[in-house]
Write a structure and sequence with these properties.
mainly alpha, 2 helices
């Protein structure tokens, strides 16, 4: 799961509600809606290694 800093509590609550309380969550800076496409792309590139690591970690369980 990926969530912005403003929605981390909601992301954790949703994960728990769906029976995955330990689901790894990648947290990225908020907001996204006011950023340009270029800025969002920069954020994605900056955090892609963390997101891949979480996906691989989840797949190993």
């Amino acid at each position: 799961m990926i969530a912005t800093t403003a929605f981390i509590k909601l992301a954790r609550a949703q994960a728990s509600a769906f029976g995955q309380p330990d689901l790894p969550i990648a947290v990225i800076p908020h907001p996204l809606g006011t950023r340009s496409r270029a800025e969002v792309r920069e954020l994605a590139e900056k955090h892609v290694a963390d997101i891949v690591a979480l996906v691989c970690q989840a797949g190993a369980k």
